[in-house]
């Protein structure tokens, strides 16, 4: 139920206007609509721009009818939730249209006319029915919604242009997803030597570095390596098989890059030829095992789509929050 509500709430207003127009064609002259409040009544003001109460009331009505088509019974509590969603959508759309205009985006008359002429609700026998549109639909829309259809459509197209700019800049690429899955799917087993550093003393750091270099040189000879460890009272540690993401977390995000670059270039049994400084230790690392798990191409496509949607939603939501915090908004919803 909630998922269906979210899906419906996410539709662009332009789509809703098209539905309104189509509904008018089907039901005009056969349905009686209730009164929506006095002429000029507002449900909200956004930066001194009014949102008609009729437009809000009809938006709630249309939303209810859509949900009832899914077989949902609308309780009083649910209706209050829907009212809040409709009002927020109207406010957000107004904010986006205002922001788009400030940023220099425009909807020329030619583009607006094309949008209207292409609407199937206004076409008869394959041609735009100008008489129906001007003499019947526009007056009907103004009576029922308390606003001019062309003004509303222009505002919706303007808001959509800004949304498109934001969402197109928030796409996650297929390569980015593939790289992420490689980090998850590639597993390494590592043998490491960590020489503790208790401070920033240059001599201590140099001594630790020298010890690790000696261990690296001795790794081809197990006996020599064991003797070195015993003389410095040190122990090697073999880490379990872990994904690159887990290895990155173990060594620290900032310090792990060079380590991972080296390990991925090695064959099992080989050791990185340089020591690595991480936090409070000097490290030597040896690759024991590497396991490359296959990546499902369908998973790449699915994750690319899902992540792009998630990033786009976060971008739009964050932008709307910023606009809301900076705006002057007055609502009259009881």
Protein architecture, described:
By secondary structure, the chain is α+β, with helices and mostly antiparallel strands. The protein has two domains: 2-169 and 305-331, Porin chaperone SurA, peptide-binding domain (Triger factor/SurA peptide-binding fold, Orthogonal Bundle); 177-292, Roll (Chitinase A, domain 3). The protein has 13 helices and ten strands. The protein has helices at residues 2-9, 13-27, 53-69, 76-102, 109-117, 130-145, 149-168, 174-185, 202-218, 222-232, 244-251, 253-264, 297-326, and strands spanning 42-46, 49-52, 123-124, 127-128, 186-196, 236-238, 242-243, 276-278, 281-292, 329-331. Strands 5, 6, 7, 8 and 9 form a five-stranded antiparallel beta sheet that branches. A three-stranded antiparallel beta sheet has the order 2-1-10. The chain has a two-stranded antiparallel sheet with strand order 3-4. Helix 7 (149-168) crosses helix 13, helix 9 packs antiparallel against helix 10 (222-232) and helix 11 (244-251) crosses helix 12 (253-264). Residues 1-16 and 22-39 have low confidence and may be disordered.
């Amino acid at each position: 139920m909630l998922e269906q509500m979210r899906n419906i709430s996410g539709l662009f207003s332009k789509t809703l206007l098209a539905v309104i127009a189509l509904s008018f064609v089907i039901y005009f002259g056969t349905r009686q609509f209730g009164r929506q409040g006095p002429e000029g009544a507002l449900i909200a003001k956004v930066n001194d721009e009014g949102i008609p109460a009729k437009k809000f009331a009809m938006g709630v009505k249309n939303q209810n009818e859509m949900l009832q088509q899914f077989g949902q019974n609308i309780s009083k509590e649910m209706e209050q939730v829907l009212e809040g969603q409709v009002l927020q959508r109207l406010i957000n759309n107004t904010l986006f249209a205002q922001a788009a205009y400030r940023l220099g985006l425009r909807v020329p008359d030619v583009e607006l006319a094309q949008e209207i002429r292409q609407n199937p609700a206004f076409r008869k026998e394959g041609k735009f029915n100008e008489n129906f549109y001007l003499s019947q639909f526009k007056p009907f829309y103004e009576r029922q919604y308390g606003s001019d259809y062309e003004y509303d459509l222009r505002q919706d197209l303007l808001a959509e242009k800004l949304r498109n700019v934001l969402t197109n800049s928030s796409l996650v690429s297929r390569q980015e997803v593939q790289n992420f899955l490689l980090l998850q799917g590639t597993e390494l087993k590592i043998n490491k030597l960590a020489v503790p550093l208790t401070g920033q003393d240059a001599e201590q750091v140099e001594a630790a570095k020298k010890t690790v270099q000696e261990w690296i040189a001795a790794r081809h000879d197990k006996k020599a390596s064991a003797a070195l460890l015993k003389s410095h009272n040190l122990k090697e540690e073999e880490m379990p098989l872990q994904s690159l993401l887990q290895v990155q977390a173990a060594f620290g995000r900032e310090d792990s890059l060079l380590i991972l670059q080296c390990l991925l270039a090695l064959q099992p049994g080989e050791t990185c030829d340089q020591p690595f400084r991480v936090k409070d230790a000097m490290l030597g690392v040896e690759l024991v095992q590497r396991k490359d798990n296959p990546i499902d191409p369908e998973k790449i496509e699915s994750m690319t789509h899902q992540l792009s949607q998630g990033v786009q939603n976060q971008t739009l939501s964050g932008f709307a929050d910023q606009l809301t915090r900076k705006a002057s908004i007055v609502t009259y919803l009881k």
